[in-house]
């Protein structure tokens, strides 16, 4: 007959898909009951892990089934108290900001390193969501290199003040707020961590977004003060990670994902930018060239057990559209428009599903 010690030993190898830590170390294994060759495991879910409840239960069942003498495994799912979740995740619930109270979903777009097209993806994601009929805003939180206002064609525009709040300019049906509005063009912003934290915290309170379905936040690259502050100050529904196929970019992505996992922030999935280049060969046939390699985004998504949301081609029209301030996703029938439309649809579907879930992944009544 299997022993409790044997069961707990194999469960130490089972990790929460989002937090990346052992269920045993997290205190999620509440009870193990053994009746001959039958084993029942009680698992207490956290909020961050609840949308993955099916995967967690399956992983537990598979691990315990491999213990000699076990023929039947039953997994019972419960949920933790708020105090238990806070202790495990190491953070308190993000306090509600009045300026954000009418925003249904706040989505951050991040990358492990610069130069992967994160801002381009952010802008086109916002446009694609708006094209689907959602009310959308975009916040450029890249303090050191704000470019969202340029890609949206808002050079020279400024927010105005109403009732002590900044009212963001609008373009293409999207409300836009950027640090590029608040500093002279070309001026270097030389701020250390505390100033970055203060500026982003104040911005969370200072913008009149009105009623929005989605607010897309374009984060600066890396794992520094700004991404950390946004995750702590804004009630994020989740994060989209942008990468390119080459290995050096993928290694940086892992660091970024690990940071958000440590913060208990949900990862929507990965967007692989500059994924391929389409050309016409000497024979007149279309060729697909993996300029920066191939399969990297798919492998990373599989290894990290997160969705690959889409592959964005290396297309001159994408950079040209940014230079003229007319995002490619404005044409939903173009190849780029279809790619970003599919990515937006996947993110919207996940967001709406999470909104319906209760504290342990069950549908709200």
Total count of helical runs of at least 4 residues? 11
- Major sheet details: 8 strands, mixed
- The N- and C-terminal alpha carbons lie at a distance of 42 Å
Provide the structure class.
alpha/beta
Helical percent range? 25-40%
What spatial order of strands do you see in the largest sheet?
Answer: 8-9-5-10-4-11-12-15
Low-confidence stretches: 358-365
Q: How many β-strand runs?
A: 15
Strand percent estimate: 15-25%
Rg to the nearest angstrom? 22 Å
Shape: globular
Q: Encode the helix/strand succession as letters.
A: HEEHEHEHEHEEEEHEHEHEEEHEHH
Average predicted confidence as pLDDT: 81
Which helices and strands appear, and what pairs or packs with what?
Elements: H1 4-11, E1 29-35, E2 38-45, H2 53-65, E3 72-79, H3 82-89, E4 103-111, H4 118-131, E5 136-140, H5 148-151, E6 160-162, E7 165-167, E8 170-171, E9 174-178, H6 193-206, E10 212-218, H7 225-233, E11 238-243, H8 247-262, E12 267-272, E13 277-280, E14 286-289, H9 296-304, E15 308-311, H10 316-323, H11 335-356
Parallel strand pairs: 2-3, 4-10, 4-11, 5-9, 5-10, 11-12, 12-15
Antiparallel strand pairs: 1-2, 6-7, 8-9, 13-14
Helix pairs in contact: 4-11, 6-7
Overview of this structure, please?
It is a single chain. The chain contains 11 helices and 15 strands. A hairpin with a 5-residue loop joins β13 and β14. The protein has helices spanning 4-11, 53-65, 82-89, 118-131, 148-151, 193-206, 225-233, 247-262, 296-304, 316-323, 335-356; strands at residues 29-35, 38-45, 72-79, 103-111, 136-140, 160-162, 165-167, 170-171, 174-178, 212-218, 238-243, 267-272, 277-280, 286-289, 308-311. The model is unreliable at 358-365 (pLDDT under 50). 40% of the residues are buried. α4 crosses α11 (335-356) and α6 packs parallel to α7 (225-233). The chain has an 8-stranded mixed β-sheet with strand order 8-9-5-10-4-11-12-15, sandwiched between helices. Strands 1-2-3 form a 3-stranded mixed β-sheet, with helices on one face. With 365 residues, it is an alpha/beta fold.
């Amino acid at each position: 007959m299997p022993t409790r010690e044997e069961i707990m030993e194999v469960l130490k190898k089972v990790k929460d898909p989002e937090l990346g830590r052992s269920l045993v170390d997290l205190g999620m294994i509440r009870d193990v009951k053994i009746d001959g060759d039958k084993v029942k495991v009680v698992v207490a879910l956290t909020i961050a892990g609840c949308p993955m409840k099916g995967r967690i239960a399956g992983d537990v069942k598979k691990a315990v089934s491999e213990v000699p003498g076990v023929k039947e495994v039953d997994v019972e799912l419960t949920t933790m108290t708020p105090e238990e979740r806070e202790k495990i995740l190491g953070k308190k619930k993000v306090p509600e900001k009045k300026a954000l109270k009418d925003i249904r979903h706040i989505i951050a777009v991040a990358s492990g390193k610069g130069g992967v097209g994160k801002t381009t993806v952010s802008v086109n994601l916002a446009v694609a969501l708006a094209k689907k009929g959602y009310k959308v805003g975009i916040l450029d939180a890249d303090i050191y290199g704000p470019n969202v206002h340029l890609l949206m064609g808002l050079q020279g525009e400024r927010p105005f003040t109403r009732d002590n709040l900044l009212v963001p300019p609008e373009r293409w049906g999207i409300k836009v707020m950027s640090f590029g509005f608040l500093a002279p063009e070309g001026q270097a912003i030389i701020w250390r961590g505390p100033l970055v934290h203060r500026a982003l915290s104040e911005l969370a309170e200072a913008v009149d977004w009105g009623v929005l379905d989605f607010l897309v936040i374009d984060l600066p690259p890396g794992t520094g003060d700004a991404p950390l502050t946004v995750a702590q100050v804004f009630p994020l529904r989740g994060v989209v990670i942008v990468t390119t196929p080459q290995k050096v970019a993928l290694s940086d992505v892992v660091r970024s994902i690990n940071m958000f996992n440590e913060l208990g922030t949900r990862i929507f999935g990965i967007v692989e930018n500059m994924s391929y280049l389409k050309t016409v060969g000497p024979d007149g046939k279309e060729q697909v060239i993996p300029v920066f390699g191939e399969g990297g985004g798919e492998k990373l998504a599989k290894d990290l057990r997160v969705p690959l949301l889409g592959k964005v081609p290396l297309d001159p029209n994408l950079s040209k559209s940014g230079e003229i301030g007319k995002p490619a996703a404005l044409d939903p029938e173009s190849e780029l428009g279809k790619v970003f439309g599919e990515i937006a649809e996947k993110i919207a579907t996940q967001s709406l599903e999470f909104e319906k879930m209760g504290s342990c992944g069950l549908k709200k009544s």
